[in-house]
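User: Um, what's this?
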Amino acid sequence: MGHTFSIDDLVACCDADGVRGISSFDELTFGDYQRAFEARDKWAKLGWPLDRAVFVRRLQEIREIRNDVMHFKPDPLPKDAVERLRRLLQLLKEFTR
């Protein structure tokens, strides 16, 4: 995201009140990236020929998978979890070249 947005662009939509004190991209959470893509002005700046709402829904699905893994949820992941991750990764690679 650093090629399209400055850290100030993302702080404005992810930490507008400055409570978290975000000063670098490394401090952004997955939820922060999701919020950035939800913002119509940020999305327009990307210029991607994708449906923003659909992309954000896919990010939500990936965020849930990520949280289940990182927080050691005892329930099994959906059978297609790895395939969902691969599809999003491929899409991101295609549009960030």
